[in-house]
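Suppose you are handed a protein chain with no further information: no name, no annotation, nothing but its sequence. What can you learn? This example shows the usual starting point.
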Amino acid sequence: MKELRFEIKNVKTFEGEEGMGLVCDLFINGTKCCHCIDSAYGGEMNIHNVSNSDKVKDLVKQMYDYCNNKPKIKVRDIEFPYTVESLINDLYNDKQIEKAKKQMLKKRENAIIVGKKDDYFDYSFFNSRKPIKEIPTRILQNIIDEQVKPKLEKGQIILNTNIPDININ
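A reasonable first move is to predict its three-dimensional structure. Written in structure tokens, the prediction is:
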């Protein structure tokens, strides 16, 4: 069986009665296969095939087989089956992480970013009036040593990788 590639597109979120709702299209191996709706009313996600073609039916069947063969999700002492809804949620979370990562990488061009490693949502920054790479090394090192490092909280590090000549540890 060929490895399956999943992607969600046309993602819309909204506030429902029981949390955030989600509407998206699910692509399997580049083919639009399903339209997915989580109405945020406490029920299951509605997943509809977008076509009755044999190709879509086969890809959707493979997707269900894929989900059924995934390990169960353990929350405290309770186990839940991995479902298509779990897959959609994982894809959405991955998309949000990528978006946050891009924002952070863009921001670091003009800021010193401080946070925990690989946490793209919870960080703070020290803005600069001009791009970091234009600040002389000696001045930037003084800023980091005197203004940034003393304010680091437990577990925080300087996340910039775009200032290689500076001691950020």
